[in-house]
Amino acid sequence: MIPPRLQEVVDEFATMPREMKLPLLLDYANGLPPLPEGFDSSELQRVEECQTPFFVAAEVSQGQVRLFFDAPPEAPTTRGYAGVLHTGLDGSSVDEVLGTPADFFVGMGLAELISPLRLRGMGAILAGIKRQVAAATA
């Protein structure tokens, strides 16, 4: 089941006209928060499946997941994916994150605009988050 906040994002994309989906993804890219000051970047793990150097860290505290991303500004699609995941999953419970379907993004309707290889990047980022959350709660 898609967590409620992430479902809101999926629904937002699903209801957008085709020509507005990429600008919306760029809005999410621009809204991705920077790493907090003093954040230990050694906690970030590279998502190897992404063509762009892309890093993610998932921290679990009191059953809630906090997400941190580092993606270069010249990779707006990847940053947009990170922004979607941050908006939809940051602060969610461990169970919500681990239960998020790997293909949740299909309902966003981006397949007509973005190559399958790039779309798989969003799934790879989610898989990396899930690995980190599972390891933190094992």
**What is the overall pLDDT average?**
91
- Count the DSSP helices: 5
Q: Provide the helix percentage.
A: 40-55%
Total domain count: 1
Determine Rg (CA atoms, Å).
Answer: 14 Å
Shape category: globular
Elements, N to C (H/E): HHEEEHHH
Number of strands: 3
CATH architecture field: Alpha-Beta Complex
CATH topology: Sufe protein. Chain: A
**Weakly predicted, low-confidence segments:** none
Proportion in β-strands: 5-15%
- The top level CATH class name: Alpha Beta
Strand order, main sheet: write it out.
1-2-3
Class by alpha and beta content: mainly alpha
Query: In angstroms, what separates the terminal alpha carbons?
Result: 22 Å
> In this structure, how is the largest beta sheet organized?
3 strands, antiparallel
Description:
The chain has 138 residues and is mainly alpha-helical. It has one domain (4-137): Sufe protein. Chain: A (Alpha-Beta Complex), CATH 3.90.1010. The protein contains 5 helices and 3 strands, in the order H-H-E-E-E-H-H-H. The protein has helices at residues 4-15, 18-30, 76-89, 94-98, 116-137; strands at residues 45-46, 55-61, 64-70. It has a 3-stranded antiparallel β-sheet with strand order 1-2-3. Strand 2 and strand 3 form a beta hairpin. Helix 1 (4-15) crosses helix 3 (76-89) and helix 2 (18-30) packs across helix 3 (76-89). It is globular.
